[in-house]
Amino acid sequence: MSEAGFRLLDVSVIHASELRKNYGDFAAVDGISFDVAPGESFGLLGPNGAGKSTTMRMIGGTLLRTSGTLEVLGLDPETRGPEVRASLGVVPQSDNLDEELRARDNLIVYGRYFGLPLSYLKPKADELLEFAQLTEKANAKVNSLSGGMKRRLTIARGLVNEPRVLLLDEPTTGLDPQARHILWDRLFRLKEQGVTLVVTTHFMDEAEQLCDRLVVMDHGQIVAEGSPSSLIKQYSSREVAEVRFGSERNAAMVDELRDLAGRIEVLPDRILMYADDGEGLLEEVHRRGLNPVTSLVRRSSLEDVFLRLTGRSLID
Ligand SMILES: Nc1ncnc2c1ncn2[C@@H]1O[C@H](COP(=O)(O)OP(=O)(O)OP(=O)(O)O)[C@@H](O)[C@H]1O
After folding, report:
1. Full-prediction pTM beyond 0.80?
2. ipTM over 0.90
3. Which atom of ligand 1 is nearest to the CA of 29?
4. Which CATH number does 237-299 carry?
5. Which of 150, 172, 187, 313 has the largest CB neighbor count within 10 A?
6. Residue minimizing CA distance to atom 31 of ligand 1
7. Residue ranges of the domains in the chain?
């Protein structure tokens, strides 16, 4: 490994500089640069088509980049693929488990691809099933498991080689709230064990929960970078008052509200008013006799950051 490689290894688990992936004239990933530190939980947040999965696939060494620099644990995944993959755990967007095999056998068969011996894999599979809260399902066929169980099994499978870095592409898409919370809990435990997590998501609450730091992506580019709280501080107010006047009146009410808040966003079904004191703002709305049909005050979120940066919602 080069001297630079050693240096990067100290500070960056993943280093990307001007990373690009073109499909013909279309830039799916348009020259992005970021670093992921050891033990960090790092997020790629953006709407569908932002380029998150493409970035993940380049990190995992399953997709060739068009240009730019990419190093994973100090190595180029294109030229040092087997070594990089041996240190990575990959949880793809859709569970590609072997449905006909039992849960435990899925782990063992996957581990065999890494050339791991059965004497290691059998106890490891039991340990991972316990971690994934699937011990009771060890002998159940995958096609009989719930969506949340399959997701946890896919994560367990990604851990079979004791990776230092776990790549999770949309880990909770399609799961119900309870299943999401169980999964987040397992990811927190991995983080406590020092595993570096790289997570793509289009759920702002997931990014807020899981990520120490994240990049916000849109159209293949990074539009902002920071911790969830620093991004909210930088791009939004502390609170948001949401008011609904009904679809007929919403747009017409904006002029009446304009001078009350520094920033106003009009969505099809509601108006968002940004202020540090949301309750005070709402009181003023009522004092003016504007009487929204419904109203609420909430904390600013990464959704508000995305809206501010792109003028669009994270989820179409
Ligand atoms: N093989 C391909 N050929 C052409 N375009 C592609 C190809 N793969 C991805 N794209 C395009 O690249 C863009 C980025 O896709 P990508 O899957 O990385 O987005 P994403 O942010 O992960 O979104 P999602 O959450 O929907 O997976 C999209 O516009 C997609 O249609």
Report:
1. yes
2. yes
3. 14
4. 3.30.70
5. 172
6. 49
7. 3-226, 237-299
